[in-house]
Every structure is written in structure tokens, then in C-alpha cells.
Amino acid sequence: MSETEFTVPVYYDNDANSDAIANKTVAVLGYGSQGHAHAQNLDDSGVDVVVGLRKDSDSWTQAENDGLRVATPDDAAAEADIVSMLVPDTVQPAVFEAISDGLEAGDTLQFAHGFNIHYNQIQPPEDVDVTMIAPKTPGHLLRRNYVEDTGTPALLAVYQNTTDGAKEEALAYAQAIGCTRAGVVETTFQEEVETDLFGEQAVLCGGITSLIKKGYETLVDAGYSPEMAYFECLNEMKLIVDLMYEGGMAEMWNSVSDTAEYGGLAVGPEIVGEGVRENMDEALEQVQNGEFAREWILENQAGRPSYTQLHAADRNHDIEEVGARLRALFSWAEEAEEEEEAEAPADD
Ligand SMILES: NC(=O)C1=CN([C@@H]2O[C@H](COP(=O)(O)OP(=O)(O)OC[C@H]3O[C@@H](n4cnc5c(N)ncnc54)[C@H](OP(=O)(O)O)[C@@H]3O)[C@@H](O)[C@H]2O)C=CC1
Ligand SMILES: CC[C@](O)(C(C)=O)C(=O)O
Ligand SMILES: [Mg+2]
Ligand SMILES: [Mg+2]
Fold first, then answer.
1. What is the per-residue pLDDT for 335?
2. Would the CB of 95 count as within 6 Å of ligand 1?
3. Catalytically annotated residues
4. Is the Cβ atom of 133 under 6 angstroms away from ligand 1?
5. pLDDT tens for residues 271-319?
6. 204 lines ligand 2 (CB under 6 A)
7. Terminal-residue alpha carbon distance, the chain
8. Which residues contact 346 (CB under 8 A, 6 or more apart)?
9. How far is the CA of 263 from the centre of ligand 2 (A)?
10. Which residues bind Mg(2+) 1 (predicted)?
11. Phi and psi dihedrals of 272, rounded to 5?
């Protein structure tokens, strides 16, 4: 463990004890983005895995074709020592109800995101361990990184430790899916949930797409061609983000022209300024006080009316049509798409 270089404990391969999971069976419930990656990585690491899926699931054959054993969620959970809850957050409470009889004293209920524990949508029995290994990446990259022998950072949290071995077992699980190669950061369910929701809303998914769309609309409304606007505001985003990912903002600033650096540093904070910061504070408060969670739970109970509307409006934005046309012209984009499709499990 590295305690000196970071403000939080970070664990690596040599901190993990694979014996803590060696003779256990893991039920991976769900075979979507995270599920297929956890199941295949665990299996390749020699851990006994059973995938839990509904009888009529299209993914059933996919998982079997990937060499995995498959059972219904309740049967999988009943035979497992560790139940990894990798179905969508919104269906987890119902799936938990269906599998909870199969949880025995000393078993582990494990999550990749703490929403349902933190917001009390799942109340696990007191005699099981409750842990989290939350890879900080979409599932398809978790699998790709494992296969390519690189690692994926993850968060580890323990909510209930009835056996006294919860953390050791979670670390062994993280090692088996390839996360201790990159570093596993210890946190709490509360911190993971609040930072994850804030990050995906304000910066990663919500913030960046809104910024791109506003930039695109500004150029198109001013009479520039949609193609130019697409390249400038969306396509080049990846190249800029790649540079920051590799070497921080400094590497990005070093790679762009001095004109871009001056303009970016001088004008950027005028665009994303104090007003945005105030909006971010508000979004964070709604995550912290549970208002967002309540809204999302009620939205699902009502059959997702707002989600459906927002989803459709987003997919119908001009930028998607222009992007589809432009990406079709580039062989590199097609190759990347083919590669992604080959790796992805069947959609639900
Ligand atoms: N997406 C990501 O990369 C990340 C996700 N997480 C967390 O990981 C967890 C899983 O998310 P994610 O991988 O996105 O989930 P997905 O939406 O990809 O999960 C889909 C899978 O869940 C199955 N499923 C859906 N509903 C049910 C049900 N009622 N009963 C049984 N199985 C069902 C589907 O079955 P079928 O195949 O039959 O359709 C499918 O196999 C969540 O807690 C999420 O927050 C954490 C980090 C990143
Ligand atoms: C950024 C989105 C995410 O939080 C993730 C991939 O980590 C998610 O919920 O999918
Ligand atoms: Mg996340
Ligand atoms: Mg998330």
C-alpha cells in the first residue's frame, strides 16, 4: 500500500492476497457493460464464476459462448459466496428481493456503485459483508485493459464487515478483474456515490456534452458549416482529452499553439465561469441531500417520461446526424466501431 504519496490508501497487486477469493464462487448478476467484463476477467484469473441472468435473456447464449456458466439470478446467488450486483442501478432493488433468500451468513454482497446502499433502496441482512469494487471506467475498457495486460483504477469500499475479511476479499476481487495493476483507492460508499453522480452529471457526461452542443450551436447559428462546427467542437475534443489523460493539462497546453494556450487560458474561464460553478454547487447539493436520487427513483416508478423525452431530443440533435455522416467517411472510425462491436456483448 502506498500511504506516503497519496492522501488516501492506494493498493496494488502486491497488497492483494488471491487466496481470499481462490476457493469461492462469484455470482455475477448481469452481463452488460460491467457484468461481462467482471465475469470474463474473474474467469481468466481462475476464479469460479456463475453469471446470473433471466431465463429469456439474449445475453445467456453470449455468456455461454464466452465460456461461462449461466444460471438464473436466484440460483446463481444461492450457490455463490460473493454476489456481484451488476444489473442497472434502477433494477437492483427488485433483483435483490429475488436473490436475498440465497444469501447466507458470511456471504458477500458486492457492488460497482453504491447508489442503492447509500440511498437505502437495498437493506442487506446484517450477517453478510457488503463491499464495493467500482472500476473507474466503462466496462468494455475494463475488459480490454485486462486482456492487454494493462490495468484499470478502481475504488474499494466496505459498508459491512461481519466476517472481518471483507476488505481482503474485495482487494482479491479487484486483483482478479485487473484493477490492482493500476491502483485501488480506498473510499466509502457515500464518497463514491456523491463524487460519481456529481462527476457524471456536471463534468464527464452531462457537462462535456452540453459544452460541445453549445459550442456547435454557436458556430452553426453564426453561419459556419455544421461539418466545421462538428470537427472543431466534438471531433478534436478526443485529441485534447487524450493529451490531458497522458500528461495532465500541462502536456495539452505544451502541445497546442501559444495562441491556443493564451486564448484558452484567458477566454475559457469567461465561458465556464462563476455562474457554472454556482450551478455545480447546486447539482452537488442535490446529490448530497438525496434530491436527485429521489427524482430518479420516482422517474423510474412513473415509467421514465422525462428520461424518454430527454433521450429522444439528444439523439435527434443535428450534431448526431452530421457526426454520423462524417464518421462514415473515415475508415479509422469504422475500424474502431467494428472493434467495439466485436467486444461488446449483445444489447439488452
Ligand atoms: N456502465 C459502466 O461502465 C459502469 C457501471 N457501474 C455500475 O455497475 C452496475 C451495472 O451497470 P452497467 O454495467 O452499466 O449495467 P447494464 O445496463 O450494462 O446491465 C445490463 C445487464 O443487466 C441485466 N438486467 C437488466 N435488468 C435485469 C433484471 N431485471 N434482472 C436480471 N438481469 C437484468 C441485463 O440482462 P439482459 O442481458 O437479459 O438484458 C444485462 O445483462 C451499476 O451499479 C452501475 O452504476 C460502475 C462503473 C461504470
Ligand atoms: C461516467 C459514467 C459512469 O459513472 C462510469 C462509467 O463511471 C457510469 O455510471 O456509467
Ligand atoms: Mg463512474
Ligand atoms: Mg456512475
1. 62
2. yes
3. 113
4. no
5. 999 999 999 999 999 999 999 999 999 999 999 999 999 999 999 999 9
6. yes
7. 39
8. 58, 59, 62
9. 31
10. 196, 200
11. -100, 80
Q: Is 91 in the pocket of ligand 1 (CB under 6 A)?
A: yes
Ligand 1 atom, smallest distance to 346 CA: 37
**Quick count: other Cβ atoms within 10 Å of Cβ 114?**
26
Phi then psi for residue 273, to 5 deg, are: -105, -155
Question: How far, in Å, is the centroid of ligand 1 from the Cα of 217?
Answer: 33
Rounded to whole angstroms, how far apart are CA atoms 17 and 168?
7
For residue 62, CA distances in Å to 44, 142, 297 come to 16, 18, 30
Helices (H), 45-188: 59-65, 73-79, 92-99, 115-118, 139-147, 166-176
Calpha distance 122→114 (Å, rounded):
10
pLDDT digits (tens, 9 = 90+) for 161-177: 999 999 999 999 999 99
Whether 138 is in the pocket of ligand 2, judged by its Cβ within 6 Å, is yes
Asked if residue 338 belongs to a known ligand binding site, the reply is no
Choose one of 133, 200, 201, 241 to mutate for the ligand 2 pocket test, by most ligand atoms within 8 angstroms of C-beta: 200
Show the cell assigned to 76: 446463481
Answer whether 347's CB lies under 8 Å from 62's CB: no
Amino acid at 306: S
- The closest alpha carbon to 159, from 198, 127, 193, 188, belongs to 188
18 labeled part of a ligand binding site = no
Domains of the chain (ranges plus CATH)?
A: 10-188 (3.40.50.720), 198-343 (no CATH)
Q: Which atom of ligand 2 is nearest to the CA of 135?
A: 7
Quickly tell me which residue has 424518454 as its cell: 308
